[in-house]
Structures are given as C-alpha cells and as structure tokens.
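Thread: 5-formyltetrahydrofolate cyclo-ligase, structure

OP (GT): Posting the sequence first so everyone is looking at the same thing. Length is 195 residues per the record. Can we get the structure tokens written out before standup tomorrow? I want them in the notebook alongside the other entries.
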Amino acid sequence: MSELSEAASKTEQRAAALARRLALPDEARSAAAAAIAARALPFAVPQDAIVAGYAPIRGEIDPFPLMHALSARGARLALPVVTGQGRPLLFRAWSEAEALARSPLGILEPPQGAAEIVPDIVLVPLAAFDTLGHRIGYGAGYYDCTLAALRASRRIIAAGLAFAVQQIEVVPAAAHDVALDYVITERETLIFRSR
C-alpha cells in the first residue's frame, strides 16, 4: 500500500470509528467506563506506580473511573500536557482533589505549577484499534512520539482504552506507529505484550 493510500485508509477508518463512538448513548458510555474500572487489569499496578490517564475529549471513553480505582489502591496519577507539535507529551502530577485548567488546545490538564513526573503506565486514548495492538489516533502523532521516547529510556506499560465499537479489522500501521501492550474495552482485554 502506498503512503498516500495508507493515509487515506487511516482517515476513512478513523472517521468511521469515531462516528460509531459518537453514536453511543450516554448510558452505554458510563456503563463502559464503570465496567473497565471494575475489572481486574492484566498487569500489576504496584503501590506508588505512576499512572498517566487523559482528560477525555471528542467522545473518548472516560478513564477517570479507572484512575480513581487505581488511586484508591495507592497509584499516583498524572495527566498529559501538549508542549508542541512533533514533541512528546509531558506528564504532570494530579490528584482527584485538584482542579484542572483548560489548555490553549481546550484540553483539561493540571496547572503549570504541578510537578512533572514520568509515568510507569500510560492509559492511551484512541480513535480505532486492531487485534495486533495498533491504534489510530487523531493524526498528530503525540502518543506515538511520547511512547517511543518513554520506551527509549525505561520499561512502561501502554494500555489503550476504548469502546468495543472502535475495533477495526486492520490498522494500516506505518514505521513510526508505536504498538500498544494492551487494549481494554468494556467487553474484553486484548494482550499484545508477549509479542
């Protein structure tokens, strides 16, 4: 597949998966987030592990119920901050009691004074995913760049969170696309780490 047709295919798959995601009723969204939070994770989350979530946008599955459950078991929480196009995200410490500020991109994030920390586990939003651990994001490459940078310096867990309706047959993965270790939906957990 040429780069041009690969990009067109990703664009079409992204649009279709996002449409399915946006069509979900609010009750199904809340139930899915609660189901993920209530289910055992396929990996250990040690006491004091740093878990980076995200503030959901554009109909993404809400990671906060899972983050709250992990925090109650001793995990420390963080949220991402965009620092510039083509640059890895940085992560700032956050607790449920702290207010979030709206960034210039309109995304909720910890205030500038919050400590920068490096996560052990990254909960990754996505538009679509396949059964090989590949994901389609929104096209800016923030998470690919971030996961590659983190993995270059330490062992981390990258777990995609999604609704089951976001699964597609095959993501046309490019060389710069970084695969996930897991994808967790309200129906199942897909494990790729052993590959």
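GT: Both are above now. Quick notes for whoever picks this up: Residues 138 and 167 are 15 Å apart (CA to CA). DSSP finds four helices and eleven strands in the chain.
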